[in-house]
Specification:
Blueprint: E1 4-8, H1 12-24, E2 28-32, H2 35-44, E3 49-53, H3 61-72, E4 76-80, H4 85-94, E5 99-101, H5 106-154, H6 158-172, H7 176-184, H8 193-199
Parallel strand pairs: 1-2, 1-3, 3-4, 4-5
Helix pairs in contact: 5-6, 5-7, 6-8
Length: 201
């Protein structure tokens, strides 16, 4: 699958040169000359990386970067004709993966883009791993709490309760996590008695 790069630059000549150069390098390009147009493009296709001019008419590059970060979690680089410390500091605070000073030579920009894409992939993998861990912890906690409540209700051991709960879920075609949440929130009575009798020797 081709990597898609969004280029947002209000100078039409610079936009054309960047888009053509990056396309020749093998990237799929979404080109926009304003933040508003870029938002429309992103609603149709989410890019893998964005190159943003800081000084855009209407929605500024800073504002658009915040929208990208908060709404789509798309990583970005900034383009600017200025390299003053205040602007660079603002870019860093927003989490930009790079800061490119115009005028730009596409062959010189490509290594920075490749590095940014690699870093973006690493960040995405870390976020996914964190999400998976949170989901696993949430699942484990709710099931453990439900088993504790059901053990008290039916006077069964932990293993007996777990086996009976699993059998109950299978016979009713329900996910164990869903049933566990219902037990914890007391939204549904779960009768494990038939399954407990079957599980005991």
């Amino acid at each position: 699958m081709e990597t898609t790069i969004l280029v947002v630059e209000d100078d039409r000549l610079v936009l054309h040169l960047l888009a053509r150069g990056l396309s020749d390098a093998g990237y799929q390009i979404l080109a926009a000359d304003s933040g508003e147009m870029a938002m429309q493009l992103c609603s149709a296709q989410q890019p893998d990386l964005a190159l943003l001019d800081i000084h855009l008419p209407g929605i500024s590059g800073i504002e658009f970067a915040q929208w990208l970060k908060n709404t789509l979690a798309v990583p970005f680089l900034f383009l600017s004709a200025y390299d003053d410390s205040a602007t660079v500091a603002t870019a860093a605070e927003l989490g930009a993966l790079g800061y490119l000073v115009k005028p730009l030579d596409v062959p010189q920009v490509l290594p920075t883009i490749r590095t940014a894409l690699q870093r973006a992939t690493e960040i995405k993998q870390l976020h996914q791993a964190e999400l998976n861990l949170k989901t696993a912890l949430h699942t484990s906690r709710n099931i453990s709490m439900a088993i504790g409540l059901l053990m008290q209700r039916f006077g069964s051991t932990s293993d007996e309760t777990f086996d009976a709960l699993r059998a109950y879920c299978r016979s009713n075609r329900k996910r164990m996590l869903d049933v566990a949440e219902q037990v914890v929130e007391q939204r549904q009575e779960v009768d494990l008695a038939p399954h407990l009798r079957k599980s005991k020797p």
